[in-house]
Design brief:
Elements (H helix, E strand, L loop, with lengths): L1 H22 L5 H5 L7 H14 L9 H11 L5 H13 L2 H20 L12 H8 L5 H7 L6 E7 L1 H6 L1 E33 L2 E29 L8 E4 L14 E7 L6 E3 L2 E9 H6 L4 E3 L5 E3 L11 E4 L15 E8 L6 H11 L1
Parallel strand pairs: 1-5, 7-11
Antiparallel strand pairs: 2-3, 4-5, 6-7, 8-9, 10-11
Helix pairs in contact: 1-5, 1-6, 3-5
């Protein structure tokens, strides 16, 4: 009964595939998974894994399109494209079905299923079921840790205080190694395989043989391109802006990530202190004694009134609430602290001294 159900599922799958292929240009399963016809099991597994990991919500937070794509993968019957990907893996990961497909194509697979072949591996299998079977029951996070990846590239990026206050963009030129096709084939994924050979009635010999898959040869070439880095309001030193899979490439693996680590560039007027800003203002001795009217031009060029009618002591610090840095991903702001430097006269005449004594006596 179970075998019959699997056969029916497999036939249903190919009916849907036939309908899909009549609506779009025909693709081979190898094209769908973007692997060569002689691809090893490991290459096929990596190709499918990359699709699964690419659209996972944990890697695409806030990206509605990626989340929608993941939902489609999670319910394969809702998406013909994802159903094709699933079918491609179902066939190419099974040595018997793959051999039939390589020799006779989809018609051969249909006949195989109709004649009672093993067909699909399960009924109503969703993305998580495939993922669990595919990776031995591990979670997406566990599997991502196992993926062989190239090195992450971390670049210290100096952002202007204006961009960190208002938000902005920076153009960055990036050079990296790129994997390019090269002539010939290469041996990879070498492994030992054990098989038994009958040498007589009831007599078998165990033989161990080293097997190497033949893969297209590749080489590294240096290429450069311009990247646009988005600086968000309120980002702090040490925060990172990631470009996934734009780090160093890895043959038979996945590229690492490129990460720009924010550093606040020095500013002529303001100094950043966490979410606050600090600055110094020079005033004369007279202004310190009788008060003054002054404004400071802020990072976005709005004016901050720092006037006072009272006495200002040397090195006195005043706080201006809400005039500091914006908090990242928040509508709140820190504070502005102004230190007043009192400029004393370098010399006084006798007449000036006399008048000061009369006023202050």
């Amino acid at each position: 009964m179970a075998a019959r159900r699997r056969t029916m599922n497999f036939l249903f799958l190919f009916c849907v595939l036939s309908f899909a292929l009549s609506a779009i240009a025909a693709k081979s399963y190898y094209d769908i998974l973007q692997v060569p016809k002689g691809a090893s099991d490991d290459q096929i597994k990596r190709a499918y894994r990359k699709l699964a990991l690419k659209y996972h919500p944990d890697k695409n937070q806030g990206n509605e399109e990626a989340n929608k794509k993941f939902a489609e993968i999670n319910n394969v019957s809702d998406s013909i494209v994802d159903l094709l990907d699933w079918a491609a893996y179902e066939v190419l990961s099974d040595s018997e079905k793959r051999n039939i497909y390589d020799r006779y194509g989809e018609d051969g697979l249909k006949q195989f299923a109709a004649s009672g072949g093993r067909g699909s591996s399960g009924g109503g299998m969703g993305f998580q079921d495939i993922f669990s079977q595919f990776f031995g029951g591990g979670t997406m996070e566990d599997e991502e840790d196992k993926v062989v990846k190239g090195d992450d590239v971390i670049v210290e990026l100096e952002a202007s205080l204006e961009d960190l206050y208002m938000g902005g963009t920076m153009k960055v030129w990036r050079e990296k190694n790129v994997i390019k096709p090269a002539p010939g084939k290469r041996s990879c994924n070498c492994r030992n395989e054990v098989y038994h050979r009958q040498i007589g009635p009831g007599m078998y010999q165990q033989i161990t043989e080293q097997v190497c898959d033949k893969c297209p040869n590749v080489k590294f070439e240096r290429e450069g391109n311009s990247l646009t880095v988005d600086i968000e309001k309120g980002m702090k030193d040490g925060q990172e802006i990631s470009f996934y899979e734009d780090g160093e490439p890895k043959i038979d693996g996945e590229p690492g990530d490129l990460k720009f680590r924010i550093r606040t560039a020095p500013h002529d007027v303001f100094k950043r202190d966490g979410d606050d800003l600090r600055t110094s203002v020079n005033i004369t001795l007279v202004e310190a004694l009788v008060g003054f009217e002054k404004t400071i031009k802020h990072l976005d060029e709005h004016l901050v009134d720092i006037a006072t009618k009272g006495i200002t002591k040397p090195k006195e610090v005043r706080k201006f609430k809400g005039e500091g840095m914006p908090l990242h991903l928040s509508n709140k702001k820190g504070d502005l602290y102004v230190t007043f430097e009192v400029l004393f006269p370098s010399a006084l005449t006798e007449e000036q001294k006399k008048k000061i004594k009369e006023v202050l006596a």
